[in-house]
Every structure is written in C-alpha cells, then in structure tokens.
Design a protein that fits this description.
With 177 residues, this protein is mostly helical. It has a single domain, classed as Serine Threonine Protein Phosphatase 5, Tetratricopeptide repeat. The protein is built from eight helices and no strands.
C-alpha cells in the first residue's frame, strides 16, 4: 500500500500561507498591547487622550474594506440618531464577523441610546469576551449599572476600566476613585 504524502514544497507553501494570514491579526494585537502599555503609563490627560484616540482607531478598523465601510456607515447612522439603520448595519457586520469586538460595542452603544439596557449589557459582555480591555464597554456597563441603581456593580466596572485607562472621562462619575 502506498502512503500519500504531501511534497515538501506543498507543505512549505501551506505553512507560509498560514503565516501570512496570521500576521495582520498578530500585528494588530501587538499594536494594541503597546498602546495599552503606553496608556497605563500616560503622564497626563492630554497624552492619555491621544493614546485613547489611537486605540479607538485600531478598534474601528477590521482591516477589511467591506467591514470597515459598514462600520463607518453604522457610526454615521448612530451619530445621526438613525438607530434603526445603525442596528441593521451592525447586525450585518456581526453576521459577517462575529468575533469583531467593536461591532458588538457599537451595537451596545445603540441599544444604550434606545434605553434597551439589558440588550446593551448583553452586547457589552460579547465585546468583553473578544477584548477584555475595552474601557468603553466597561465604562458603558458602569453607567448602565448606575442608571439601574446598582452602585456596587457600577463601581466594580469602572474600577476594571480604570485598570486599562487611568484617565477615563467617566471616572468623574465616581467620587473617591
């Protein structure tokens, strides 16, 4: 009986292709890791805001033209208070890329604006599964918990957010932190 083996050249091609596919995700992770390290060490609010902006830009880029265009559309719709349109667009993004944390976060934000707090909290949980350092989602969860008269849970969320972003704006909602 003859064994079926892949030629060495085919095996090398498969290995190289798998590395090429993995490099963008690895580079994005390294970039975020670096930005979060710098953010934790920021000397003042100005420096922190600059780093925060870079983190948001990284989160909002899926490095896929179709997804990026849909995300830009959803953010535009949300900013224009077209929450129904934003939800439709974000549902498309989530269907196409269910592991994209920022899509879940943006949908959580839309639900928050609609005062659909439980739906927002569900999407925040999905965001944090993908990106546990997501200070925007953690702060959003803290605000919702305050609105639900759950100050201990709110405080817990903001403390977690501050571990990642010591100059977070929402900090002012929690005297003594």
């Amino acid at each position: 009986m003859k064994a079926n083996f892949l030629p060495v050249s085919a095996l090398l091609a498969i290995i190289c292709l798998s590395l090429i596919v993995a490099i963008p995700a690895f580079a994005e992770t390294n970039k975020l890791d670096s930005l979060f390290t710098e953010l934790k060490q920021a000397k003042d609010e100005t420096e922190a805001r600059s780093l925060e902006d870079q983190i948001w830009k990284t989160w909002l880029s899926a490095e896929n033209d179709e997804i990026d265009a849909l995300m830009q559309q959803a953010v535009r719709q949300r900013r224009n208070y077209d929450f129904i349109g934003a939800l439709e667009t974000l549902n498309k993004v989530i269907a196409l890329t269910p592991d994209y944390a920022e899509a879940w976060n943006q949908r959580a934000t839309v639900y928050f604006h609609q005062q659909e707090f439980e739906k927002s909290l569900e999407d925040i949980a999905k965001t944090l599964e993908q990106e546990p350092r997501h200070f925007g989602s953690l702060a959003g969860r803290a605000v919702i918990r305050l609105m639900q008269s759950k100050p201990a849970l709110a405080r817990q969320s903001i403390i977690e957010a501050l571990k990642h972003h010591p100059f977070l704006k929402e900090r002012s909602m929690f005297p003594g932190l």
